[in-house]
Structure formats: structure tokens, C-alpha cells
Design brief:
The complex is a heterodimer of chains A (about 190) and B (about 180).
Chain A lengths: L16 H12 L7 H11 L5 H13 L4 H44 L3 H32 L1 H17 L4 H18 L3
Chain B lengths: L1 H19 L8 H11 L5 H13 L7 H40 L3 H29 L3 H16 L4 H13 L4
Helix pairs in contact in B: 1-4, 6-7
The chains are: A mainly alpha (about 190), B mainly alpha (about 180).
Chain lengths: ~190, ~180
Amino acid sequence: MTDLSLPSSAPPPAPSLREIFLSFVLVSVMGFGGVLPWARRMIVERRRWLTEAEFLDLLALCQFLPGPNICNLSIAVGARFGGVKGSAAAFLGITGLPFVIVIALGALYGKYGGAPAVTDALLGVSAAASGMILAMAARLSRPLLVRRPGEAAPVMILVFAAVALLRLPLPWVLAGAIPLSVGISWWRRG
Amino acid sequence: MKGSSQLGALAVSFLTISLLAFGGANAVIPEMHRQAVEVAHWMTDREFVSLYALAQAAPGPNVMVVTLIGWHVAGLAGALVATMAMMGPSVLLTFFAYRLWSFFRHRPWLNAIQNGLTPVTVGLVSSSAFLLAQASNHGTLAYGVTAATAALTYWTEINPLWVFGVAACLGGFGLL
């Protein structure tokens, strides 16, 4: 098997479409509550398709664009090694099996979801999931609040108030918040 | 046709959300909730929370909640339409942006956009946490689970599966 081989200076040959597809299938079913850490492990450590720096560079692109980060990452990694076909292979790999699994769960839920114990258990999972998302927000905000609290904090609070408290439609909120926030960071650059 | 109009509505909702999802699926939970529960009346608050939890309990990207919403509204066709609408625009954008990435990676304006987007993303993601907690937590103990999970996730590298398992048991035995 290819994993855990000794590091060497020569990069491994570019992966085939089949390898790209199967690797992303593997990643897709390993992660619960997010699969990004598993993608990094597979791409950088096990397959050594990208160096850590190359991976972080691609991730920066994928996090900056809208859409699910991991799906964007599959597109970028696939494009790098196989163009359009590579992107398609990686994307189908990361979404295919999870799609089938959630449909199966959805069908089971349709059948047994009426039972109070099931709904209550799902409420518990959701309570935990909200905590996980809160931690994600805290991790994202930490470097901002350390480096430039004066410009970041007002934008965070404004967006939170508009979306969570006032429940305004997202297109309006972003149409206001993005130009404002990008404008501030352009004005304060350098 | 009721069926095809439902599919059209699913497509319109998620095509829009796709290009607004700065920070990924976890940034747009309030907007999905607003569309599915308040605007389109596809489901109750409680059903939305259940579907979200179900998607979390399954392996795979967080975005698969979209597939479940589509499934709930219009079966397999709904699941396909919702998933493709949510993924299509952002996936195409990424493909073309990747090709241009090496040209604009080091431009100062790109840096300003990246720096400007992050605080917006933080606002969106914390709104998602708030909305989900509000919709699913009906007592002090449930908020305790939320707080404990947040602390464990922030300060440790705990596998989410354990946390979900414990939380599901607490909920299932009617303790939350």
C-alpha cells in the first residue's frame, strides 16, 4: 500500500482519475461533522499529492470562495491533476456515497421519525452540533480579534445582529456587509 | 403541476444560497431555515432541526443537509435538484477561479477581499450556531450540552462522533 511510505524528495507521479475518485470516496466517509481534516491527511500526508504549503494555498482559495469548502477543494485538487475530468472525479467521489447514505437515513427517518425517542435523540445531536459550530466561529475569529479587533469586531456583531436577531434575508445582509467590510480592510491596508 | 413547481422552488432557493455561502454550509443555516420553514413552509422548525441532525450524524460533508431537505420536499428528484443547485454555482466558480488563481493570488485587492470576508463569515457562522441552539434547545441541560460541546471542540481534538453519541443518548432518554 502507498500509505506511510518513507518521505523522499521526488514527488509521486500525478494520480490517475481512478485514484482521485477513490481517494475522495475514502475521505468522504471518514469524517463526521466535517471532512476537511481528513482531506488534508489524505492529500498531504498519505498520498503526498501536495506539500503542506501547496495545500494551504489551495485551501485559502476554497475558503475565500462561497460554497462548501470541501467540495470546492475537491474541484481545485481534481483540476490540478486532471483538468475537468479530474474535478468531476474528485467531486463525485466526495459527494456520491454521502448522498446515498443521507438518502438512506432520510428514508429511515420517514419511517421511524415519528417516534418521540428518535426526535428527542436528534434534538440532542443538534444541541451538540450547535456547540460545534460555535467553536468553529470562535476558532475563525481568534486571529482576527488578536490582530485587528477594531475593524473585525463591529462587522461580526453587525452581521450577527442582522442574521440571527433581526432574521433579515441573507442577500440583503451580504450586499451591505461585504462592501462595508472589504472597504474597511482596503482602507486600513498596509 | 405541484411536483414540478416544488422542484423549481427548491432550485431557486439553493441556487441563491450557493453563491452566498461564504464559510460553507455552516454559514447559511439561518437562510436555509428561513427559506424552508418561514418562506416556503416545507417543514416545521422541529423537522428542520431533525434533518440537520440527521445529516450531521451521517459521514460526509456538512452540506448534505441540503440533500435531506430536497428529499423531504420532493423525494429523490428533490434531493438531486437541491444538491445540484447548492453545489453547481459554487463548483463552477471554483473551477474557473482555480485557473486564474496563480494570476491574482498576490494582488493587494485580493488580500483586502479575503480580510474583509473573514469577519462576515464569523458573523454568519455564529448566527448559525445561535439559530440551531435556539431551535433545538428547550431546557438548561440542552444548553449545557451545547456549551460543553463548544468547549470540547475548541480546546481538544475530540472526535465529534463521541459527542454526538452522548448527546443522542441524553436526548433519546428524554433528559434534554
